[in-house]
Amino acid sequence: MRRIVILRNQEKEVVGYRPMIQQGTKEQRRDYYQTFRITSEVSQAEALHAAKEWRDTVEWRLGIDPARHTSARNGKPITCISLIVSQKPPYRAYWSTNQTADGAAKIRVSIGTRTYQEAYEETIVRLAQREGMALPEKMPEAPPPRRDQYKRMLKSGLVSIPAPKTTSSRRKAKV
User: Fold this and answer.
1) Band of pLDDT at residue 90, cut at 50, 70 and 90
2) Digit-coded pLDDT (tens) for 71-86
3) For residues 83 and 108, what is the distance between their CA atoms, to the nearest angstrom?
4) Distance of CA 57 to the CA centre of its chain
5) Residues 39 and 105 in one domain
6) How confident is the model at residue 71, as a pLDDT?
7) DSSP for 147-163?
8) Is 110 among the domain residues?
9) 35-83 pLDDT, tens per residue?
10) 38 within some domain
11) Whether residues 54 and 117 fall in one domain
12) Which domain holds residue 113?
């Protein structure tokens, strides 16, 4: 990740800039930064310009694409459909696709105005139109929600939701 932190004094006046580049995560994370202060010889514009120049030079030296905020991919090369259920009341549920690498927008179809299965099928139809694919002859069954999603959907008053799959317990059976 890259950013330039604005340094301020106690009177909230800008006194300098600290460009920062974070590379990697957890134990492999490495931070690069340097401070550029505003002085009587260095104006605010010059300090900001020097900070940007340092940041761009370090990115080039590290092999990071210039002007990328993060090295993580913006989108996946393929599209997937996910069930999204909000964590807090009022609970909202919808089927959503991710934004693909080519920049195609997300597709969201709300559950509530349509049933669980109808919303899933509508998502598939819109996705097929967007990707220029043929629709399947028989629409697939919507996958069941996770247990926590199911509980929140019931609390919101949604009906005709398939029960979540039961998973085998990790506990040993009592004999």
Assistant:
1) confident
2) 555 555 566 899 999 9
3) 10
4) 28
5) no
6) 54
7) HHHHHHHHHTT--SPPP
8) yes
9) 999 999 999 999 999 999 998 888 888 877 665 555 555 555 566 899 9
10) yes
11) no
12) 81-155
